[in-house]
């Protein structure tokens, strides 16, 4: 089965957008921010995110597509970088600004290039990136014309862990139509100074969640065994938590590669190198999706070499792009009142050119 690539704007023809305040009161664009031009680094005051005034001024890169018109609502995508990575690097690494030409794309910056959820990151009482995300969404939706039913976030490594924390948060997480992590880092409570991914993860927003992870990841091991570094939550266990938060139907423990939940669908892709697991929740298909990638290291799959440690960790370029997978899956989901709404499966599947189903 092969489907053409899709864009988030395609959904606009099927469901009316929910206009943000910025659509009604257009604001002048910041100096040097040009639709279709390069991203611009901007600052935001986030006073509630930290008691330390030096950490209350936060940074982010903003890219407006060439199609941006101040009164026409567009989807919004937030992309969170990995630990030690900066916003320019994650933009070049994922290519979301060019791969998603009809969306506003924002790359938030972590304080000291890291986000909440890592064992060495400050606790939320010192730097709260969930509050920063909330403040950033408030600012963006009041300044730019955004379809608030189509707000999404994806993250790599430590940034992928933050999207997991957003899924755990019923207040901020419920502002997103879908979330995704690539090589995402989730840690048990005993590895952190506060309960975040364990007892602190209660959800309530029922937000679709996708994760892509390699079996050869030496930084965030698929089964959580990270050598002399803190152990992370095994991917099957984490996906089980995402399924529970989304009200998937429990089955016998350990079935289908997911602890406590059985996959509704398992597909083998990319010549056997990729296994796609998906789960249906509350009568909706593919609410939770996981790609297990054989041989992939710690990285964002992509066909373009980026050089340096990023290529070294992931094992070089791949024959497919995770960005196309994520953006296609995002295009299936909108958020109205209550649970997210699902688009037509045949129109909005996250299929990559050249992939075929096997078996």
TrEMBL record:
<dbReference type="InterPro" id="IPR029058">
    <property type="entry name" value="AB_hydrolase_fold"/>
</dbReference>
<keyword id="KW-0858">Xylan degradation</keyword>
<dbReference type="InterPro" id="IPR043595">
    <property type="entry name" value="FaeB/C/D"/>
</dbReference>
<keyword id="KW-0964">Secreted</keyword>
<protein>
    <recommendedName>
        <fullName>feruloyl esterase</fullName>
        <ecNumber>3.1.1.73</ecNumber>
    </recommendedName>
</protein>
<keyword id="KW-0119">Carbohydrate metabolism</keyword>
<keyword id="KW-0378">Hydrolase</keyword>
<keyword id="KW-0624">Polysaccharide degradation</keyword>
<keyword id="KW-0732">Signal</keyword>
